[in-house]
Design goal:
317 residues, alpha/beta, Rossmann fold, 3 domains, four-stranded parallel β-sheet, binds 1,3-dihydroxyacetonephosphate, binds iron/sulfur cluster
Length: 317
């Protein structure tokens, strides 16, 4: 890919000309995180997208995130530097599958992770992200059955915290987080006995982390199940010199910026999301030059999905 030496200046100048705000998820490559106006987790970025004064949003993340921004701001132009940046978790449930699941469980409230297509959101009562999933489900009366999808590990985390047995969980997973397993976590925790453990709830190893704490192998207060945004907050107030991080490796860049004196080590340093990494500086520049790829959501689907996303954003404000 051709990348002019002055790409960063050109991106900033074009963003100004186009009245565009650049948002980047914590899993983006370092250069994209550094040029963005805002970096954050999916909930924080949704909130910024909903209130940003700019007419154009350039979403450096994956497609469902840009779609969520478009659902919240239908009158704005939403661009993603590469429309093929998908998500294996969002692909793990279709709107038809969700309709069948609902038909088999009348009366249940549907909670969907934001990592879903607009069509799935349109069939959803309330969305959640990893930072508010517990609060969102807690907002539903305890005697009302819940269908939670598509991530099985996040669903198991919500069930564990709330101790509710009327939450049915879909069997989907993110291939990157599912690949961070208990064996790797145990080996790293043993090799670094003084480190804190930051574990994303989508990880296959989240249960192993709690098991390590219960077994006394790691002090319970060192095991933290956190969304990517919560990891940055924890890093700012943390006291340990070393932290083991179980999530997509792009996260380490933002953590080092937040706490330069701390050593952050990936539990699995091959846990890279190929979709997040499809967004490059060259494609960001092209996106602003050519105003592409524009994200389009069918207006009827967007209208039905909006309620579920807005209910989520309203919780915990
Ligand atoms: P959060 O930023 O909400 O923690 O999401 C993680 C993720 O996998 C997004 O793709
Ligand atoms: Fe989807 Fe997983 Fe990539 Fe996040 S890390 S965008 S959940 S495939």
């Amino acid at each position: 890919e051709d990348l002019p030496a002055d790409w960063a200046e050109r991106v900033r100048a074009l963003a100004e000309q186009r009245d565009a705000v650049i948002l980047a998820h914590n899993y983006q490559v370092g250069a994209i995180q550094d040029i963005a106006h805002h970096v954050g987790d999916s909930l924080a970025l949704s909130r910024i997208a909903a209130t940003a004064p700019q007419q154009t949003i350039v979403f450096c993340g994956v497609h469902f995130m840009a779609e969520t921004a478009k659902i919240l701001s239908p009158d704005k132009t939403v661009l993603i530097p590469d429309a093929d940046a998908g998500c294996s978790l969002a692909d793990s449930i279709t709107a038809d599958q969700l309709r069948e699941w609902k038909a088999a469980n009348p009366g249940a409230v549907v909670v969907s992770y934001v990592n879903t297509t607009a069509e799935v959101k349109a069939e959803t009562d309330i969305c959640c992200t990893s930072s508010n999933a517990v609060e969102v489900v807690r907002s539903i009366p305890a005697d009302t059955p819940v269908l939670f999808g598509p991530d099985q590990f996040l669903g198991a985390h919500v069930r564990r915290i709330l101790g509710r047995d009327n939450i049915q969980v879909w069997g989907g997973e993110c291939h990157v987080h599912a690949g961070i397993n208990g064996g790797q976590l145990t080996a790293q925790a043993t090799a670094h006995p003084d480190a804190d453990l930051y574990i994303h709830p989508e990880c296959g190893c989240a249960t192993s982390a709690l098991y390590l704490a219960t077994a006394g192998a790691v002090p319970a207060e060192r095991v933290k199940i956190l969304s990517t945004g919560e990891m940055v907050d924890a890093a700012k107030v943390g006291r340990t010199k070393q932290v083991l991080v179980a999530t997509e490796i792009g996260m380490i860049h933002q953590l080092r910026r937040a706490a330069p004196g701390v050593e952050f080590l990936a539990v699995n340093d091959r846990a890279s999301c190929k979709y997040m990494k499809m967004i490059t500086p060259a494609k960001l520049l092209r996106s602003l030059e050519q105003m592409r790829d524009e994200v389009v959501v069918d207006p009827d689907i967007a209208a039905r999905a909006r309620g579920a996303v807005e209910r989520m954003i309203g919780i915990g404000m």
